[in-house]
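Two proteins were folded this term; both appear here.
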Amino acid sequence: MIKLDKSENTEFLEKSIHHLEATGFENIKADLEGYEKPKSYSRKGADEKITPDIVAIKNGRKYFFDISLKSEKPRLLKTKWLFLDTLSRMKSNRFRIITTRGHYKFTDTMLEDINLSNKEPIKI
């Protein structure tokens, strides 16, 4: 989710973190009070920073998670997903998308648009 949507959706972010904890993820970092903030990546030529919503470790492998909710700026979200997917593949990590009811179609359309239709979103 992009920075604009984060303040409105902290409840879903917490729900996602609890789901990940229940499924065995540990060392969870999230841009939320009470958690360590994940590392941000700067875009060259722009002063925007890309920060994954959640970073966690399971079985020694690092996972990047991004929350998919309907957004006013889908282009920024697509850029973020492509970057996180590329970064995770370069370092043999994993990238997953978390979504919820009412946002499935938006998420599927976005994934098709950027040619990541092989990703199966985690539905909470």
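Next, the second protein.
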Amino acid sequence: MEKNIPDFFQEKLKDAKTQFERTIDCKHTEFDDLYPYMNEQPQFFWYKRYVAWQELLTIVKLAEELDVPWQENFKEQQQNFITNKVMDAKVLDEWYGKKRTEA
């Protein structure tokens, strides 16, 4: 069965974005299942955020290399964060916008 590359990457972008957002919200992710013994370590939450961020950046990079548009999946501020590639507290605080409300 052949896969359409743009559709494939759109799906992967959506999955990576969801995974990253779940880490921001301190929700369970696939990464928790890989390292269940680490859940009680405070640094684990930062580590899994960095892993999810890197996954998102990698998929965006591959999409760009294949000329698959990725920007439509993200708000302008999120696009800027991705383009700048640096993961810091500002990304976590402002990913949803300046007036983020806790879920």
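Residues 5-94 form one domain. The chain has a mean pLDDT of 89. These notes refer to the second protein only.
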